[in-house]
Amino acid sequence: MRHPSEPAIEVRNLKKSFRDVTALDGVTLALEPDRIYGLLGRNGAGKTTLMSILTGQGFPSSGEVLIHGTDPYENDGTLARICFIRESQKYPEDFTPAQAFKAAALFFAHWDQELADGLVADFALPLTRRIKKLSRGQLSAVGVIIGMASRAEITVFDEPYLGLDAVARQIFYDRLVEDFARHPRTIVLSSHLIDEIANLLEHVVVIDKGRILLDEDADSLRGSAVAVTGNREAVEGFIGGYRVLHRDALGSLASVTIQGRLGQTQRSMAAELGLELSPVPLQQLVVRTTMAAQAETPLENHQEALK
Amino acid sequence: MSAIDDSRPIFIQIAELVESEIVAGTMAEETQVPSTNEFAAYYRINPATAAKGVNLLVERGILYKKRGIGMFVSSGAREKLLQIRRSAFQVQYIQPLAREARKLGIDGDQLSDMVRQSLAAAAAEGSVIQ
Amino acid sequence: MNRVIKVARMQLINKWTFLGIPMAILLGSTLLTFAIWAMLPPGAREGTLYSGSGQAVMWYFLALGIQSLTYTFPFSQAMSVSRRTFYLGTLGLFAAIAMAYSILYYLLGLVEKATGGWGFNGQLFALDWIAGNHPVIQVLFYFVAMVLLFMIGFWGATVYLRWKATGLLVAGIGVAALLLGVLAAVGLNDAWPQVGAWFAAMQVLGLSIVLGLVCVALAGGSYLTLRRATT
After folding, report:
1. ipTM here
2. Which end of chain C has fewer CB atoms within 10 angstroms, the N or the C?
3. A263 Cβ contact list (under 8 Å, min separation 6)
4. Minimal Cα distance from B1: which residue of A?
């Protein structure tokens, strides 16, 4: 039985280096059960490394991973509750999709063949063609179908949409919401198509250079930053005291993205100053936060060096 | 699905969408509203977020739960929402209007003429809320 | 159902890899040998006809060792199977198949002798130096030989998976250096007669035991390498 307050996934001070490259640099996270998490970040930020360690496919250089309280590495009892499909997932070369699903049905106790069949039809996947002969999109569809139909308590998708066209991606998102509503489980979705999945996510984790930059509820992020546009002097006067995420300027016109939630008074003040306030989409917020953090990092290091 | 934007938390937007339907009369009092899963599927949002929006309306007494059946619009919900919207009207619409009018040099008389004209036009469209 | 057995079942989903192809090779190479023997001019048929085609399937097992790791291990990871379970299931399945083939080889050897070398006075399965031994020793020898080839392939593929081409190169050089070292030591000490005598004295049982120990070493090495391999 699951304890209500017990996190599904707990990661403590995870570090991973490959020779001279530091892929993860002290990651600490706690993911609640039955939520959809977005793991966002640039290519090479450490997303895949993190996901493979927390699903027991990889192992850390130091630190700890607990899945419902136990280490998944080489632990079949815990692994049986997890499904992680890699972005470049390999399949036995001579397998057909039908055979891959047959294998998945062996290992995943909650496997739903009906759901798998429905998705096969949705993606128009040829079931009896050899996997090595499938297109990139069809290959991604195989991964998506295994991940969804496994109904694993913890399901992790690493950029599952490669090669899928806009229609197929929409099918994936729709089916995911539908099936998640009926069978809640912990889902981790890594992506850099943030706009497409923003509304599906309940919680957002942003990783950059092996560190967690942002770990927050998606809904509390929405509206947590605002773009202020108008006369440069007026903008500069208005934004005093706020953390600046981004600056754009065009002649005497300035547009500055600041972190902070504006109240009614500040909104009225902005209106009186002739400033326009516009919401910042999640995608931009993530991009701005990442870029701002990168700009600030050398400074931090410098300060640390001075100590 | 453009109904959802990034300016504010989605659960608040969901609550407001339901409120607007109630105010417009498309969701009548004592009728059942869609389930959170239906909201989630329709707006392509996380079901937990949809549930949060619906629960917000339950807390405010706009919706109520019938055990084992679903959510219903409370009687008197529409009137209650109209009251709230009327009191927000000044801040939400009149103040920006006045501010803009002042910027453009439109005086009080001109403004009230304009408002009267617009009211008449709206009445002709039949979109006045009774 | 036990996950180790599920791994074996996963390896058997495509029936050809572990079952169909070895059987096809065995049948094909045997029939081909018969055909060649049948076409030989009468003059060439005097005395015993030897053929190494019985080994063909053994060499396929080397390829199978490579293939069962490189193709299936990354997939087994996506199926949330631990490395240990994958290892036990795959090796267990192969051991069962190798045992079945070993017994089959022994039985074919009996048939060969009973039919006067398949009517050609040929030797395919009941090779002189093996067929004279106790049935258990014969089966043991075949089994060890098959497992050894499979393990060489499996171990090589594991080393490649973990350390890529560099690892394989280092391992290859290491093995070659070891063998050359042994040969050099024997040569420098003029010990060839003793080594020859040792081999002669060891016979099939002794050889099976020595090769069996190599198998165990490769199996242990494969497991330790696989435990820390990532896809």
Report:
1. 0.88
2. N
3. none
4. A199
